[in-house]
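> Could you send the Metal-dependent hydrolase prediction when you get a chance?

Sure thing. Input:
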Amino acid sequence: MASHAAHHASGWAAGLVAAALVAQAGAAGPWHVYSLAAFAAGVAGGTAPDWLELAWWRRSRRLWVTHRTVTHWGVAWVAMLVFAYRSLGHRHGWAAPLFGFACGGLVHLIADWPNPLGVPWLWKRHSLNWWNSGHCDLIVVAAAWAGALWLAQAAWGHAAPLAHWLGWLRTV
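Output:
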């Protein structure tokens, strides 16, 4: 698992990506309110798979599910991302924040994937087993921001490769 700080920093990167993609989809809204909502939700989504496990209704900080189970399930996060992206074109007010939240959650899973505990993408946990938890946070954050900056400049610059990829996502 990447540290909380690494998840938070990569969540900011996911928020940037979400805001850029919402703007490129033409769903930014008046004064870019929906892009800002996607950004804020992306930041929150960057740590969501961990805080969604907490049983907030109990006095002690207990988990209501085992760590890295249902809240880290890749299929659910990808499905949420695709559903929200496809809903952007219908001008639903909830689509942009949901898209940002899903971007953040997916980046969280990608950040957790390299350590030995892994992530349950389909059913069983899968790990790249590259490093132990908490190590190499700089690599995780740098990769998240490098990808975010590339995607953001491509989205706001209307780059052809990104438009081609997003066109395929709309057909799913």
